[in-house]
Design a protein that fits this description.
alpha+beta
Length: 215
Amino acid sequence: MIGDCRVAVARRTWELPFLAEARELAGLRRLLRMHLGLWGIPHLAEPAQTCVTELVSNVIRHVGELTPTTLTVSMNGTFLRLEVQDPDTRALPTLLAAGPDAEGGRGMALVDAAADRWGVILRADSKVTWCELATGLTAADGHVGHPGVTRAEALLGLYGSVRHPAGTPRTRLTVATAQESVIAVITDLLLWLRAHGCDVDEALDRAQGHLDVVT
């Protein structure tokens, strides 16, 4: 509804098939960071990257280089779910108590520390190692409950009631339509500043500074 302005974020499951090798890891991390940014949960990029790096490294180490592997990223309620699938049902990930001088054995310990929960699903011809991270989202298609976001939604609701008078059909906002409303609000605010003799560029710089602090 435009009146209470709840913006639905489309977080559709995506899959990425690839051949497991060390040189793929940097690209996987970049893609994951970009994708989580588009999903509005960039704060999970670092722990998610850690999990994916370790899960894929396990495939490389215990199954072999160039193993056909698939990364799946999805939502499970308000949890971010990461799955790494490979064709070997024998080499199962194990949580080990690796000593400080050990050269290996820390992979799943890092996953266990970064994720809220993890596990393994065995299938007839493959296994899936998965982990889930709490997002802080209000709903699977919602947003992180930052006070600034809540205030912005209230403002957009008021703005929408002006731009769409009573009797105008109201529909649930998508991110695309909400973005247009946000741009319209920003434009009108900048016009107000200019009309009152304020420096628009300075205002934008200050706003960017505040944004950097809160995020």
